[in-house]
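Board notes (copied after class):
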Amino acid sequence: MIAIIGGGAIGLAIGWRLAGAGQRVTVFERGRVGRGASWAAAGMLAPVSEAEPEEEALIRLALAGHDLWPSFAQELMAASGVPLDYWRCGGVHVALDRDQVEHLRFLKDFLVRLRLECRWIGAAEARSLSPHLSPDVKGALHCASDHQVDNRKLVAALRAAFLAAGGVLQEQTEVTALDLAGGKVAGIVADGRKHAAEAVILATGAWSGTIEAVPVQHRPAVRPVKGQMLAIRTKVPLTSVILWHEGHYVVPRRDGRLLVGATVEEQGFDDRITAGGLFQLLDEARALLPGIDELPVEEIWTGFRPASRDDAPILGPSALPGLIYATGHYRQGILLTPVTAAGIADYVLRRALPLELRPFTAERFAARESQPTDRVA
């Protein structure tokens, strides 16, 4: 049996792939599946818009995930019968003043050097893509490859597909310990009894670094980064593309909602909604789409992004034989779901980590710490 600790999109997708390959798989979730970061996300599939300097390996992984999404979505909908609202909507980074124009031109040059798809557009074309966009727009960067999926429907689909493939789901079941024998993992302990397992996959997101079931020295360096978000209900569509501005975004849904996100807060697991957080989100949304003033706020929530020391995922074997990591996806968990699931399943089945996942093993942190540093006398 393969035991997966954590029933978010990552854990469920890995379970689905392994169950589909004929493995006996059980997903253990201490609450309800998909109610963590997978539920709180905005569902953006935007490797170009999320690209940042000095993250070339992560960009390649994100592009690999993006390339898998069309076929992954089709296969998952066929297996589950659940529509995902996968939408190739595109995205627009908006500049509202001269400084922001210069910043976006710098971003464009960086993306072009990496041969990523984007193009500079003027204010008129930006408003043709998003007719209710602020009249203050000075220019924009169009990223046509930005796609999206309804992340909450994704979780429902993965749950259904995993069960249909023969997977076993244990919700409301906390794993309290790893069962160790001969210096390696032999299973897990849950509900006061042992469950033998050939491998244990840790996919607990932001909780991976604090999970008591795993010995302290083998807990991955993952911390929660709090994000507050809200949803506005619209009467008519205000934009048909994802809008980006100064680190924030507005994501249109086909059901008439606008998702506005997200704050970035180092507040541990403090899930409180704050006045400052809501003001920040509404101020950004209004700067882009002034027409939201009279629209109702339908939902407000918080989530916890699982961030590693370098904000890249931690994937593959740990130093403890039998324990495998699939965590630390930070802002790109939904985007990286297909490539993570395929890669981790491949490792479990063949004990060979695919090339695109190799830069993201936990070993990279130990290697960096062992490198000599220059010292000033």
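Comment from the instructor: The chain has two domains: 2-82+151-221+309-370, 91-147+223-307. Residues 373-377 have pLDDT under 50 and may be disordered.
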